[in-house]
């Protein structure tokens, strides 16, 4: 420390600032090393083009570049308004501005109601730009350059506080203290003299600094012009008593940094700086006084700067976690560099401006100094300053503080800068601070020079704030703790119905949940307050992030039913407790009508992981489609259909602790005949939302429209179907020349192909994965777009390339080339794509007593493929008369009628494409490849040949984004896609999995489902979905129950309306043993992929301890990693904590995942491998016509696609009546089809009927909407 006897040490801001910048450069490098492609981002927003502001901005940009900050300069024109008129500009022009629209620092006036209330509705322009920057994850700091050089009034205070406090790296902003007026003036410098023509920016030759050359005070009573030395000495704020020097002190500090930059960037003539002019902005100080100064320095701002309201409040209450104002913080940094203890010292701050004095005092106070703030009304000022161990001066009066005012050994921080006459200088001027330096340095221990003291620190602290903001953002990105707010459960016994539980739990606002899991506002598109779409841009932002653990929940075989709930009804005059199974998604052991509860287990597991084990955990579910049911089931059907939709809403016995006697326990399934009447007070739950205290909420929204993805699939299907039939019609009714002229019309006498926007080129849709066996590749085929053409050319040019025509000028095509281009020559008998209903909507109906939701749509024809029908369209209502229809009957179609039909919307290939696409470009490529039929020469005709690719992609652009929802405990769920599990892979989307795996981070968990049992759903999940996504699971959870295993052991048939047999509600170890081979087979199936298998056993109250122990014992002996008893249906996540622990332990083991078959294996051999390994078949019988199809598919290039086996989900065999785990049986393959866009071949075992019909009494009779409350009645 200096002795105070003339040896005061200089606190060089220049040296410290350089040191800080060097340290920041290293910090940025560390950030980039930690997160590849991550750089701190700074946005500087400028309105207008003031030259003084430009100089200041260039200085910031240069500093940012040197440090490694990605800075962008956003320029808005002078015409920019705070608001833009939405209707009538004249109304706004004539509107009276609010004279007190901005809070005033000096008067303390309160802000009156916004002037927006006095004008017509407006659209914010500048504020919208700031909002986008606030939400931009790549921007970590925002500076609004002041003053705002606009021709229109702008509330600067509103603009200041519109910057997010988390990005307000300025720490304070310049704001007008009233309504701004503007004046323009010019200043020229010649021979070292300031020639004032009006004032602007000038700088004195030889001094290398900017001078304040004029200040203009405009009073209500007139004007007067003051000299070069700054503000008039006689000007005093009438409210605070601050002099002009105090009010503008910050404006005169630290100009040397900017001056040197200005000199270095401006042209000089004869050794002098070039002449320059600038624009001045008048700021009303209230009471009719306007003040203007030309000062723009290196960070201390002009008069009128202020803290952001939030950050100002933080400093005032001692919360220094926000961004601190740059100049006071720079002064504090210099004080710390002196080594003098701040805590306990006496600190005096001379000046109370909101730019330097006030925040400096607050910072000193919260560093535990005893602080005295002095101002113009302070008495005995010299005595006050003489007590200071630390003296901070910011008054704007040159050399005001004399040596006699300073305590010996004090630390002196001089924040002022002024110009005083100096005949020894070439310019006649020199810069001084507010402290008489020569005198003070004899007493002080440390002192800041002027220039070179506080000034250089300002920009350095600005850059430090920006890097600090980036570090915080990076820390948030890499944080492994979400800080999830958990919704408490109020458990009841007996467990209420699903809808009662769902409606009793108030969900968190979806925006809050999104923030908790690390999503940014720009990545969330809210659909109300309870659900939101998640942008795929999060994948780009988190591309560096390692994936979390991936768990797939599968089953043994599907039951046709799932969870039970208790309801009471009257039967034969007596009050009876019925066990009414819940509608939901159950893919567990080989399914039985008694249900195992896979969706409920999925949700319960995630609730346990997130809510009870404090792990980041996501559930990824399919969008429930309760109405997508097999078409063979009609009101007359008395037996289950051969196959069921992946999320088929069935009735089951999942998870209920049954306390009633066997005589009181009844099972009601969709197998009921129409003569069995369901009591009107019973309501059934729908979809794959789980059940009990492990379900997704809000239940109604989850099971109805959700966010409209199925409607988008419907619309895309309808578009392609309409274009297909229209093209067939037009080709049949027009000549070659007429057809070509209409397809490529002349516009203003010139013919040209479509000029669509050229998009980024992409590689073929080849998906690579890492596996234990040699790398497998989903290869391209002859009809797949090449890397050169994919998405980058118009549909016409892509068709020309496929035809081998290299010409791009439509006039240059020969007659034969024009014909080949124009005519697709589609054979109507081969069409596999037809129209659906023009307007998608929902009809909630009942089919054989079952509540369903069906969508109108149109789509690919799967199964029952009558060539005369051209496959099946799709729709979402149970209309039996649309199973087979005739179209084209109108006279306008000129006799071109044909037979066709409808299937379910989720059976559309577009739904499968939605689920398998990795991003928007990949989806577009897949849509283009879809084969809709063959031409008359037997060549495939694609959607891209019809020119429908771009339009379908537009319809699907929002559907590609998954929907964020939550469980009853507030844990996150992504809901997306719902492909038919028989003819498609039956799993949620790849993009949902990818997003969730990034958000949970490397220590988190993502739990998703595989459709049906392990033999169908899990097999397709691994061999189709995992191959496409490259995402490999860490563990498999198999769901089972004692009752279901008893049915597989030969238990009696469950008959609708009849009490359950005693064997299902009493201990029967022998029957259970006979059913356990089914469980063992599914465990074996999982182990074939090299993944640990955890068995989840959902228990009932009637399960004995011996039965449960037997299931666990056999599971372990069969190779299961662990078998766990679960009660999440009744207890929520708390009932699945043991399962969560087992899953976490399994995921910690190394995985040796392998695919079941290589892709280069012939299609026929792939069928045999799946049949033998997954089903236990002894042989496979393939019809001759199927063998011919497989050979044709191979010839066309589809032989290297994976298989998507279509068979019953109710048995390991092709016969749904066969239970248990039979072996050595014959599997009969009756048909085959190919989904070129989705990328798999579908061998068909058995009949797949695709459209249900209505029963005699649909449940619409029991449904209504309460028009007062908006509550749905009778749906569940």
From TrEMBL:
Superkingdom assignment: Eukaryota
All copies of domain Tetrahydrofolate dehydrogenase/cyclohydrolase catalytic, residue ranges: 11-84, 125-170
Transmembrane intervals: none
Alphabetical list of SUPFAM superfamilies matching this protein: Aminoacid dehydrogenase-like, N-terminal domain, NAD(P)-binding Rossmann-fold domains, P-loop containing nucleoside triphosphate hydrolases
Region described as Disordered: spans on this chain: 94-118
Reactions that this protein is recorded to catalyse: (6R)-5,10-methenyltetrahydrofolate + H2O = (6R)-10-formyltetrahydrofolate + H(+); (6S)-5,6,7,8-tetrahydrofolate + formate + ATP = (6R)-10-formyltetrahydrofolate + ADP + phosphate
Enzyme Commission number(s): 1.5.1.5, 3.5.4.9, 6.3.4.3
Pathway(s) it belongs to: One-carbon metabolism; tetrahydrofolate interconversion
Gene3D superfamilies: 1.10.8.770, Formyltetrahydrofolate synthetase, domain 3, Leucine Dehydrogenase, chain A, domain 1, NAD(P)-binding Rossmann-like Domain, P-loop containing nucleotide triphosphate hydrolases
Record flagged with keyword Transcription regulation: no
InterPro entries: Aminoacid_DH-like_N_sf (IPR046346), Formate_THF_ligase (IPR000559), Formate_THF_ligase_CS (IPR020628), NAD(P)-bd_dom_sf (IPR036291), P-loop_NTPase (IPR027417), THF_DH/CycHdrlase (IPR000672), THF_DH/CycHdrlase_cat_dom (IPR020630), THF_DH/CycHdrlase_CS (IPR020867)
Keywords: ATP-binding, Hydrolase, Ligase, Multifunctional enzyme, NADP, Nucleotide-binding, One-carbon metabolism, Oxidoreductase
Homology family: In the N-terminal section; belongs to the tetrahydrofolate dehydrogenase/cyclohydrolase family.
Protein name: C-1-tetrahydrofolate synthase, cytoplasmic
Organism of origin: Dryococelus australis
């Amino acid at each position: 420390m200096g002795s105070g006897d003339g040896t005061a040490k200089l606190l060089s801001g220049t040296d410290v600032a350089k040191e800080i910048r060097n340290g920041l450069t290293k910090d940025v490098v560390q950030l980039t090393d930690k997160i590849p492609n991550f750089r701190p981002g700074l946005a500087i927003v400028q309105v207008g083009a003031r030259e003084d502001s430009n100089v200041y901005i260039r200085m910031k940009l240069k500093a940012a570049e040197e440090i490694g900050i990605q800075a962008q300069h956003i320029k808005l024109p002078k015409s920019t308004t705070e608001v833009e008129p939405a209707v009538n500009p004249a109304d706004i022009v004539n509107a009276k501005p609010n004279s007190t629209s901005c809070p005033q620092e000096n008067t303390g006036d309160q802000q009156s109601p916004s002037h927006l209330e006095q004008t017509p509705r407006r659209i914010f322009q500048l504020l919208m730009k700031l909002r986008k920057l606030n939400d931009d994850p790549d921007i970590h700091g925002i500076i609004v350059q002041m003053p705002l050089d606009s021709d229109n009034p702008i509330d600067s205070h509103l603009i200041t506080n519109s910057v997010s406090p988390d990005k307000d790296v300025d720490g304070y902003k310049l704001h007008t203290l009233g309504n701004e007026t503007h004046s323009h003036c010019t200043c020229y410098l010649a021979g070292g003299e300031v020639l004032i023509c009006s004032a602007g920016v000038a700088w004195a030759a030889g001094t290398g600094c900017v001078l304040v050359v004029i200040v203009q005070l405009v009073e209500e009573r007139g004007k007067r012009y003051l000299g070069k030395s700054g503000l008039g000495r006689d000007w005093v704020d009438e409210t605070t008593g601050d002099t002009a020097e105090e009010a503008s002190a910050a404006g005169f500090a630290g100009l040397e940094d900017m001056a040197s930059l200005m000199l270095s960037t401006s042209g000089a003539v004869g050794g002098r700086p070039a002449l320059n002019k600038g624009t001045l902005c008048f700021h009303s100080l209230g009471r009719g006084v306007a003040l203007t100064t030309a000062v723009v320095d290196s960070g201390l701002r002009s008069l009128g700067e202020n803290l952001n309201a939030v950050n100002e409040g933080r400093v005032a209450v001692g919360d220094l976690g926000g961004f601190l104002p740059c100049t006071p913080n720079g002064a504090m940094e210099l004080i710390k560099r002196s080594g003098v203890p701040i805590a306990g010292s006496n600190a005096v701050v001379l000046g109370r401006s909101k730019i330097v004095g006030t925040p400096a005092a607050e910072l000193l106070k919260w560093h535990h100094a005893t602080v005295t703030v002095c101002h113009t009304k302070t008495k005995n000022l010299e005595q006050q300053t003489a007590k200071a161990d630390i003296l901070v001066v910011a008054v704007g009066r040159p050399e005001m503080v004399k040596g006699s005012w300073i305590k010996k050994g004090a630390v002196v921080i001089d924040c002022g800068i002024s110009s005083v006459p100096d005949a020894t200088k070439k310019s006649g001027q020199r810069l001084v601070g507010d402290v008489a330096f020569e005198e003070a340095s004899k007493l002080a221990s440390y002192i800041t020079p002027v220039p070179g003291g506080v000034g250089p620190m300002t920009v350095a602290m600005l850059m430090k704030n920006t890097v600090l903001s980036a570090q915080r953002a990076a820390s948030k990105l890499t944080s492994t703790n979400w800080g999830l707010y958990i919704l408490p459960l109020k458990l009841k016994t007996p467990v209420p119905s699903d809808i009662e539980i769902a409606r009793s739990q108030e969900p968190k606002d979806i925006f809050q949940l999104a923030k908790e899991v690390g999503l940014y506002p720009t990545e969330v598109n809210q659909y109300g307050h309870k659900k939101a779409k998640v942008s795929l841009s999060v994948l780009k932002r988190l591309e560096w992030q390692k994936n979390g653990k991936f768990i797939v929940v599968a089953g043994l075989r599907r039951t046709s039913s799932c969870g039970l709930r208790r309801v009471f009804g009257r039967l034969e005059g007596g009050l009876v407790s019925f066990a009414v199974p819940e509608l939901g998604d159950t893919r567990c052991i080989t399914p039985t009508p008694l249900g195992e509860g896979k969706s409920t287990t999925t949700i319960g597991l995630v609730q346990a992981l997130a809510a009870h084990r404090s792990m980041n955990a996501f559930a990824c579910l399919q969008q429930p489609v309760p109405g997508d049911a097999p078409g063979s089931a009609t009101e007359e059907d008395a037996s289950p259909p051969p196959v069921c939709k992946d999320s088929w809403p069935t009735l089951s016995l999942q998870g209920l602790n049954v306390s009633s006697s066997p005589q009181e326990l009844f099972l009601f399934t969709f197998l009921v005949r129409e003569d069995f009447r369901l009591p009107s007070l019973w309501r059934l739950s729908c979809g794959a939302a789980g059940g009990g205290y492990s379900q997704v909420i809000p239940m109604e929204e989850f099971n109805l429209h959700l966010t409209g993805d199925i409607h988008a699939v419907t619309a895309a299907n309808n578009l392609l179907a309409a274009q297909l039939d229209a093209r067939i019609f037009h080709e049949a009714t027009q000549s070659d020349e007429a057809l070509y002229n209409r397809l490529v019309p002349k516009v203003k006498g010139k013919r040209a192909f479509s000029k669509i926007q050229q998009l980024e080129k992409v590689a073929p849709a080849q998906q690579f994965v890492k596996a234990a066996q040699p790398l497998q590749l989903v290869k391209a085929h002859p009809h797949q777009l090449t890397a050169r053409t994919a998405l980058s050319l118009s549909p016409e040019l892509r068709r020309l390339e496929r035809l081998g025509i290299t010409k791009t000028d439509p006039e240059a095509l020969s007659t034969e080339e024009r014909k080949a281009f124009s005519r697709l020559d589609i054979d109507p008998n081969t069409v596999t794509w037809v129209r659906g209903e023009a307007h998608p909507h929902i009809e909630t109906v009942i089919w054989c007593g079952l509540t369903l939701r069906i969508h109108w749509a149109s789509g690919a024809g799967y199964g029952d493929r009558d060539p005369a029908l051209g496959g099946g369209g799709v729709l979402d209502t149970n209309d039996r008369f649309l199973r087979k229809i005739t179209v084209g009957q109108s006279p306008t179609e000129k006799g071109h009628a044909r037979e066709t039909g409808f299937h379910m919307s989720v059976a559309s290939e577009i739904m499968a494409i939605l689920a398998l696409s990795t991003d928007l470009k990949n989806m577009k490529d897949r849509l283009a490849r879809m084969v809709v039929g063959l031409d008359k020469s037997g060549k495939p005709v694609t959607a891209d040949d019809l020119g429908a690719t771009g339009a379908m992609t537009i319809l699907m652009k929002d559907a590609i984004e998954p929907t964020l929802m939550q469980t009853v405990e507030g844990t996150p769920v992504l809901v997306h896609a719902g492909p038919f599990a028989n003819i498609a892979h039956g799993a949620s989307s790849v993009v949902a999995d990818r997003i969730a795996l990034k958000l949970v981070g490397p220590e988190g968990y993502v739990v998703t489902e595989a459709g049906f049992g392990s033999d169908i759903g899990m097999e397709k999940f691994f061999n189709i979905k995992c191959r496409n996504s490259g995402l490999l699971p860490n563990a498999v959870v198999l769901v089972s129950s004692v009752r279901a295993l008893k049915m597989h052991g030969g238990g009696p048939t469950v008959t609708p309306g009849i009490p359950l047999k005693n064997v299902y509600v009493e201990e029967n170890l022998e029957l259970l043993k006979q059913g356990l081979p089914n469980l063992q087979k599914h465990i074996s199936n999982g182990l074939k992929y090299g993944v640990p298998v955890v068995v989840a056993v959902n228990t009932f109250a009637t399960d004995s301890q011996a039965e449960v122990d037997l299931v666990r014992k056999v599971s372990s002996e069969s190779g299961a990693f662990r078998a766990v008893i679960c009660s999440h249906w009744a207890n929520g996540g708390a009932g699945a904590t043991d399962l969560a622990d087992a899953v976490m332990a399994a995921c910690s083991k190394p995985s040796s995942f392998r695919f079941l078959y290589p892709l280069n294996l012939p299609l026929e051999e792939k069928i045999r491998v799946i049949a033998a390994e997954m089903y236990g078949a002894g042989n496979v019988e393939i019809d001759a016509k199927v063998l011919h199809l497989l050979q044709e598919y191979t010839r066309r290039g589809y032989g290297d696609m994976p298989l998507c086996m279509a068979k019953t989900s109710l048995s390991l065999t092709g016969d749904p009546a066969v239970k248990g785990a039979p072996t050595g049986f014959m599997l009969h393959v009756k048909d085959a089809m190919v989904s070129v866009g989705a990328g798999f071949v579908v061998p068909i075992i058995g009949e797949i009927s695709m459209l249900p019909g209505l029963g005699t009494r649909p449940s619409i009779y029991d449904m209504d909407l309460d028009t007062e409350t908006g509550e749905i009645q009778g749906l569940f």
